[in-house]
Design a protein that fits this description.
The protein has 427 residues and is an alpha/beta fold. It contains 18 helices and 7 strands. Required for the transposition of the insertion element.
Length: 427
Amino acid sequence: MTDVSVTEAEGRAEELAAGVDDELVAQLVARAQADGLRLTGEGGLLQQLTKRVLESALEGELTDHLGHEHGEKSEGGRENYRNGRRAKTVVTEVGPVGIDVPRDRAGTFEPMLVKKRQRRLGGIDEMVLSLSAKGLTHGEISAHLADVYGTEVSKQAISTIADRVVAGMLEWQNRPLDAVYPVVFIDCVHVKVRDGQVANRPVYMVLAVTAEGTRDILGLWIGDGGEGAKYWLQVLTEIKNRGVWDVLMLVCDGLTGLPDAVNTVWPATIVQTCVVHLLRNSFKYAGRQDWEKIAKALRPVYTAPTEEAAMERFLEFSEEWGAKYPAIVRLWERAWAEFVPFLQFDVEIRKIICTTNAIESVNARIRKAVRAREHFPTEQAALKCVYLAVMSLDATGNGAKRWTRRWKPALQAFDIAFDGRLTAAQR
């Protein structure tokens, strides 16, 4: 069977449905209503139609397998033939449906639509994964399916469905990557994991912008909160081994040891501290009544035309606020080497790389899924939840279009600023 895209499959299904006689459909609905039958729910018309469609499709599969129609003799005699049916109940999007599965005498018939020992159709599995991505617990998913669809799916069955994601997650985490990325962002969300006792654990996400201007999440890694250069060297080497031989700029939030690891793996990469995070961290050391004044005083620093001008404005800030908030001055001094790189670029690059806002929208979706769970029993359970949330991003594809529109001007500026390193990798 040839694979088709979801959009193409929906189009074909719509075309096929349009060919069904409208008068016949109206007669079925009218008769069901006259007899007091429900259209949906257990015992409803839709459930019975699903039964008929499934049984008809299974009969067609058996005919293809045997090579002759029901009651028709095959050439050379019947080496194999129909041998009754067996009753089976499958869970579908319209509720549990009892079907009669045809059998053959030789026992060689392997149905594809509803496989042997299969108790759920694919739509239910997809529904479970979608609800898991939204952060619902296994118990909540089971209750939701029972309340809305009248479908009984045990918590153990839901756990089994969700566990199948692990293989796909491992494959995704080890997939080949592009040779070069103009910008890579690194940020994290915190999850609660029960490891003896419940503790906050960071899940780091590495998000890249491709040379075409699309978003590519390179992977997920969980830490213990005390990560240093050795940890980041392992993560970045793993990314490099998957095919990434050059990164033009890497934007992060002052992660300890990360700049040293970046310089080891990609010596030509510029490490840039997120300015927005730097401002937020500054406010932690100031009284709320001074936040607006501090933000106004720091603005000339990060909007300065050159590094020299930024230093002059910073010295002015230090004279004004250093006595009251010395911790803010020390914070900026420690981050200065990773703060100033973006000042050498034009505005198209500046407004893109001076913040991790590109990754914050993704983190917001992840946090929404994580908050729905008080804590996770294992690291793998936490990673699985985050992975499902990542896979459910941008279901309509509109987000990818916005990304491309937003990044196109910056990518042209990147290639000029970095002497053609970006387009050289695409040749």
